[in-house]
Design a protein that fits this description.
Layout lengths: L1 E2 L11 E3 L2 E3 L7 E3 L2 E3 L2 E3 L7 E3 L2 E3 L2 E3 L7 E3 L7 E3 L7 E3 L17 E3 L17 E3 L40 H10 L8
Length: about 190
């Protein structure tokens, strides 16, 4: 089923299932608690929109713009992002587990305290970005670039540092020990 647009300054509380939104302008929209399930967003402008306690479950985002978009405590479990832009996007809390952002350019995006278990960031460009205090357990990170990325406090126990680039990444001492152990090193006190 297709709907031509989704507009209005406030879409809070709305619920949509298996709809396709094409060329919709959601710039500066306010979204408190809206639920989208198995929806497709194609060429949708989410610029400067604010989403709080909203859900986009098993949704597909294709060629969408998330410039200065804010997601606070939102659930995007199982969603897929394809060829989207994320400049200045801010994500605080919420559940982004099983999300696929393959080859995503996340250099100017900020993630803080987000559950991202089994997220697929293969080929993602996170250089100088920020993923602080995130749960990246069992994340797929092959060919991802975390050069100079702030990863402090994030769960890195399951990563294989030989499969990605982490030069200059900012981590804590505890994380450094976890990574060293994942490489098979025997870490001991002096």
């Amino acid at each position: 089923m297709t709907t031509p647009t989704l507009a209005g300054p406030d879409i809070s509380g709305q619920s949509h299932t298996r709809l396709t939104f094409v060329d919709s302008d959601l710039t500066e929209v306010i979204n408190r608690g809206a639920v989208f399930t198995e929806c497709t967003f194609r060429r949708v402008e989410f610029n400067c929109s604010v989403h709080t306690d909203a859900a986009f479950v098993n949704c597909t985002f294709q060629h969408c713009s998330f410039f200065d978009t804010r997601f606070t405590e939102c659930k995007l479990v199982g969603s897929t992002f394809e060829r989207c832009t994320y400049d200045l996007m801010q994500v605080a809390g919420g559940n982004w587990s099983h999300v696929a952002m393959l080859n995503g350019d996340l250099r100017k995006a900020t993630f803080r305290g987000v559950r991202m278990r089994e997220v697929d960031l293969d080929g993602a460009r996170c250089r100088a970005g920020s993923m602080r205090d995130c749960d990246l357990a069992r994340a797929s990170l092959q060919r991802a670039d975390f050069t100079d990325c702030d990863l402090r406090g994030s769960e890195l126990g399951g990563i294989d540092p030989t499969q990605l680039t982490m030069t200059g990444a900012v981590i804590t001492v505890e994380q450094a020990i976890t990574i060293a152990q994942s490489l098979g090193l025997d870490v001991r006190a002096a």
